[in-house]
Each structure stands twice: as C-alpha cells, then as structure tokens.
C-alpha cells in the first residue's frame, strides 16, 4: 500500500509547479529573503499605528507569504521569451501593470483581514489605509519586477561570458595539441636523418641512437594527451635526446643539465625545451669549434622559472623563425599570456636561449 501511495503521480498543475520550485532553489531562497524583509518593514509600520506585537507579527507573516506566492506567479509571466529578452518598453509596462494587480490583490486581502478583526488604526479610516497599502505594495512589486529583470540580465551575461570562456579554452587546447603535433614530426625527421647518416660509417652508434630515440618516442606517446608535465620529465627527455646525439657525434659533443629539486617539480608545457635543444645541437655543430658544449640550467625564485640553454658558437639571426621557435613563441603566448619572456642572444663565445616564466602555466583545458 505504501509503495502504491508514493507511486501516484501529482495531478493537474501541482506537478509542474513542484518541478518549477525544485529546479529553481536559488531564486526561491532569494525571493523569500526579500519578501521577509518587506514583511518586517510592514510589521514595524503596523506596530507604529497600532502597537500590538501579536497583530504586527501576524500581519508581517501574511504579507510575506502573500508576496512570496504572488511574486512567484509573476515570475511565470516574466519568464516568457516574448517579454524578457531584450528588456523593452512593453516589458516595463507589463511590470507596472502586473505590479498594480498584485499590489491591489495583496492590499485588499490584508485590509479585509484587518477590518474583520477590528485591527484598524485610530488615526485613519479603513479606506485610506487600504489605498496606502495599495500604493506601497504596488511600489514594492514594481521594484521587485525591475530587480528581477536586472538580475536575470546579469545571470544571462555571466552565462554568456562563461560559454565564451569555455569556447576560447577549447579552441586554445585544440591549438596547443596542433602545435604539439607539429613538433613531434619535426623532431622525428631530424632524428631519422641523423641515424641514417650513421648507419654506414658507425653502425654501433646508429643502434644506440635508435635505442635513445625509442625511449624518447615512448615518452612522447605516454604524454601525447598531456598539455603540462613536470620540468623533471622535460629535462630527462632532453637528456635522452642529447645522449642520442652524443652517440652520433661522440666526443665532439659535451652536454650537462643542472637544476635543483624544487625547480624540477615545477609544471611546464610538455616538450617546451625541445626546439631550444635541437637548435643548440644543429646550429652549434655548424658554427662552433669542436667540441660543442651544451649547458642546460633551470632555477626558480619568487614565482619565476628561469631556463637557459647555452651552446658554444655564434648567433646568426634568421629572417624569420623556423618551425621550432615559431611554435615555441606561440605556445608561450597561450600558456603564459603576458607572463613570459624569451630571448636568444650571443654572449662572447656562447649562444644563450633564455626563458623566464612567471607563475603556473595555463593548462588550456
């Protein structure tokens, strides 16, 4: 029997009204607070003219409940797309008209209750008190109506901004993934060229390079969907790349990686250092005396992450960036908007690529 009772459907309009209340809890909480304040003010006014605390509290409760219910019915009309978007003169006229109807209904019910129980004020007749109630209740409903449309516009504007932000984040994430996909083939092409050059004259070095390339590609596949990675993983990956190149060039290449533990735990965009290290090897071997020395350093302080990739040689400024550097600059703009600097300078016999990154990177998701 109990199961059958609770399985009964609510007939008529009760079901839709129940769903209407359940799915709009924030509105009803705010509405109850606003009309409770209105009821308190009405109680104070009633107490001023007729100093009976019980009468004042009872009328305050009636004012609150009536206003709460009538304003809920008004909201059903205000939610119509025809009236609400955008706010027009016709919408304002609707607010004024419905407010008058609501004010008249509430004032009439309250004044009738006061009249029946003989709670009138000795300072004014029932007719004058009724007109005063209509006037102030009408103004209260007008204020509520315009406030409702203002809050509705604010909420809709917030939702639109939130949707636009999500769309920008999604587009940025897609662009980051595209930039990542541009880097990996570029790196793979250069690596395979290097291996093919060693297969004939130095087969053992070629085998070692293939092993190092396999480690790198395994890391790339494992992190292909990760926009961010610990700096330690980036440094270890670049160390594997340098070992691969050292297997090719032997004593002609010397490399070192320096960083402290707190710095290694910082999050950075994945594969951020790859184009810098690639350029250091490629241009350093072409422009520097042997052996080529590459030094990677990472430090952090006061929220700033400082990364330097230095190599022996000289700097030749190209007319435009290659794929690696242009991709790097775009990724920095996306991950650290207005919070980064990148410089490529020549310092004596060293070429210094320097990144200064402020704060944590935007994830793009």
Description:
The protein is an alpha+beta fold and 365 residues long. α4 (53-78) runs antiparallel to α6 and α6 crosses α7. The protein is 67% helix and 13% strand. The protein is rod-shaped, with a radius of gyration of 37 Å. The chain has 12 helices and 7 strands. It has 2 domains: 2-164, no CATH class; 200-358, Heat Shock Protein 90, CATH 3.30.565.10. A 5-stranded mixed beta sheet has the order 2-4-5-7-6. The chain has helices spanning 2-7, 14-22, 25-49, 53-78, 81-84, 89-117, 126-199, 203-222, 231-249, 261-264, 274-287, 323-335, and strands spanning 228-230, 253-259, 267-269, 292-301, 304-312, 340-347, 350-358. The two termini are 52 Å apart.
SSE blueprint:
Elements: H1 2-7, H2 14-22, H3 25-49, H4 53-78, H5 81-84, H6 89-117, H7 126-199, H8 203-222, E1 228-230, H9 231-249, E2 253-259, H10 261-264, E3 267-269, H11 274-287, E4 292-301, E5 304-312, H12 323-335, E6 340-347, E7 350-358
Parallel strand pairs: 2-4
Antiparallel strand pairs: 1-3, 4-5, 5-7, 6-7
Helix pairs in contact: 3-4, 4-6, 4-7, 6-7, 7-8, 7-12, 8-9
Overview features:
12 helices, 365 residues, rod-shaped, single chain, Heat Shock Protein 90, alpha+beta
What is the number of domains?
2
Q: Roughly what percent helix?
A: 55-70%
**Main sheet strand line-up:** 2-4-5-7-6
Mean pLDDT: 78
Question: DSSP helix count?
Answer: 12
Distance between the termini: 52 Å
Q: What sort of overall outline do the alpha carbons produce when their principal axes are compared?
A: rod-shaped
Residue share in β-strands: 5-15%
Largest sheet: 5 strands, mixed
Using DSSP, what is the number of strands?
Answer: 7
C-alpha Rg (nearest Å): 37 Å
What sequence of helices (H) and strands (E) makes up the elements?
HHHHHHHHEHEHEHEEHEE
């Amino acid at each position: 029997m109990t199961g059958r009772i609770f399985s009964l459907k609510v007939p008529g309009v009760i079901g839709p009204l129940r769903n209407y209340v359940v799915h709009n809890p924030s509105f009803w909480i705010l509405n109850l607070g606003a009309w409770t304040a209105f009821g308190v003010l009405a109680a104070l006014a009633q107490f001023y003219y007729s100093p009976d605390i019980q009468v004042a509290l009872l009328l305050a409760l009636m004012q609150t409940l009536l206003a709460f219910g009538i304003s809920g019915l008004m909201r059903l009309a205000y939610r119509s797309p025809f009236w609400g978007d955008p706010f027009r003169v016709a919408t304002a006229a609707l607010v004024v008209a419905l407010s008058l109807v609501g004010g008249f209904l509430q004032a009439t019910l309250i004044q009738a209750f006061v009249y029946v129980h003989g709670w009138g004020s000795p300072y004014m007749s029932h007719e004058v008190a009724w007109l005063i109630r209509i006037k102030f209740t009408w103004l209260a409903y007008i204020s509520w109506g315009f406030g409702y449309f203002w809050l509705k516009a604010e909420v809709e504007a917030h939702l639109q901004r939130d949707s636009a932000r999500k769309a920008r984040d999604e587009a940025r994430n897609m662009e980051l993934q595209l930039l990542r996909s541009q880097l990996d083939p570029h790196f793979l092409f250069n690596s395979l060229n290097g291996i093919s050059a060693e297969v004939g004259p130095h087969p053992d070095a070629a085998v070692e390079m293939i092993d190092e390339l396999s480690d790198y590609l395994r890391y790339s596949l494992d992190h292909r969907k990760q926009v961010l990675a610990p700096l330690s993983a980036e440094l270890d990956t670049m160390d594997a790349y340098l070992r691969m190149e050292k297997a090719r060039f032997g004593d002609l290449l010397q490399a070192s990686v320096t960083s402290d533990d707190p710095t290694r735990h910082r999050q950075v965009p994945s594969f951020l250092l790859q184009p810098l290290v690639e350029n250091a090897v490629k241009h350093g071997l072409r422009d520097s005396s042997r052996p080529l020395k590459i030094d990677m350093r990472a430090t952090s302080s006061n929220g700033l992450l400082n990364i330097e990739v230095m190599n022996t040689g000289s700097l030749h400024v190209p007319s435009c960036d290659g794929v690696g550097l242009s991709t790097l600059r775009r990724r920095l703009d996306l991950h650290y908007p207005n919070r980064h600097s990148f410089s490529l300078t020549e310092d004596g016999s060293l070429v210094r690529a320097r990144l200064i990154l402020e704060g944590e990177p935007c994830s793009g998701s």
